[in-house]
Amino acid sequence: MNKRIYQYTLAACLLTGAGACTTQKALQLPESTLATATTAPDTDTLSFSGFDRIFQDAHLKNLVDSALHHNYDLLAATRRIAAAQANLMMARNAWLPSVNLSLTAGVDHFADYTMTGVGNFDTNKSPNINNDQRAPDPTPEYFAGIRSSWEIDIWGKLKQQRHATMARFLATSEARRLLTTQIVAGITGLYYELLAMDNELTIIHRNIKLQEAAVATVHIQKDAGRATELAVQQFTAQLLSTKALEYGVKQEIAAIENQLNALMGRLPQPIVRSTVADTGSLPLSVPSGIPAQLLLQRPDIQKAELELSATKADVKAARAAFLPGLTITPYAGFNAFKAGLLFKSPASIAWGALGSITAPIFNKKQLKAQYNISTANAYTAFYEYQQAIINGYQEVATALNKVENQQQAYDLKSKEVLVLQQAVSTANILFTTGYANYLEVITAQKSVLEAELALVTTRKNVYQGLVSLYRSLGGNR
């Protein structure tokens, strides 16, 4: 059978001209060395098990679960996957023959000077036919049966189209995974931002009480003649400034809560979260090695790789379109020129089959244009894949550096806060005993407030770095 098809194809090429059966050259993309260049050193490397131990907050997990079920972007991505799956179903079945039930009726009047008109006239005069076989004029045509068309995939064009559709379906799934990772990372980052704001609010409240005590003390000292009205005014102004900070933090808390609610697909409402006392200490240091295999599992890199595979298949399908195609169109059913005779079996049963080999001649410019488009898309996908690997590597490296540097900064800031807290106590004692002036007390209180707020920010940056690292590694599957 294959030999016969080849012979028919060769004959079609000879009949239509040798140029009709030529195709374009195969796709040759540059060599990729980035995938092997990202291998990790022999030291300990990152893994998702560490992240599972870090992000154990029960309230955070509830927020993430809610977002994964109600986020509208994710729901839309799920529908896009369903559409891609439908396209895949069509591509998978493209090689099968189409079979259609056909019920047709028509009428023709043939001119006297046509082969059919002369043939019908002559046949009706023949003594060899009966009355049922005589053709009326005008001549009706009735058919009830099935008609089919089957394109034989000789050169693998349909197979390559199926491969491209499959790759794009998988790429759509990777796009949803990428979106999921971004949403999980976004919620986690905002959650730790919210905890940091709560912590800042606690620090502000504590400093307000400390400064209120200082205002009360300076009033007593003024009444005793040991302090001036200027000292009272300076302490009072500092207290008012600290109280004003509280409302700025409250506004930031409200904005973050609204962002979290939007990610979860719901209207604004309070966010249930851990208290400041439950946040715990900083996580342990993460390993510095970047595993190539884990890096290449990022959804954006996987998506880019699948898009590259799809465009390669598009080029192969475009090349195959230059070659002759074989189509078989069989039919079978009841056929008659009188409605009363349509189902008179077996005399009205008709069947037939037509096989055709077609090769492009005058539409080769369009085919070549499509091939050039597919080739350009393949090169574009290749470069985007390479860039996705580079972006992934630099994002992971940047996140690792951020975590490491912020952890070092946190240690130093913690020591600074401890020293400044002791300085405030010392300044208060010296002020009450007359060995320090009010400006030294105000400076000490202002410094410890700034240092404590900076410590909260540094702690938040450590967690934000871990969230960035989680996102840059593609998220857990």
From TrEMBL:
This is Efflux transporter outer membrane subunit. Signal peptide: none annotated. It is a lipid-anchor. InterPro entries: MdtP/NodT-like, OMP_efflux. The keyword Transmembrane applies. The keyword Membrane applies. It comes from the Bacteria. Belongs to the outer membrane factor (OMF) (TC 1.B.17) family. It comes from Chitinophaga qingshengii. Keywords: Lipoprotein, Membrane, Palmitate, Transmembrane, Transmembrane beta strand. It is found in: Cell membrane. PANTHER family: OUTER MEMBRANE CATION EFFLUX PROTEIN, OUTER MEMBRANE PROTEIN-RELATED. It holds the Pfam family OEP. Gene3D superfamilies: Outer membrane efflux proteins (OEP).
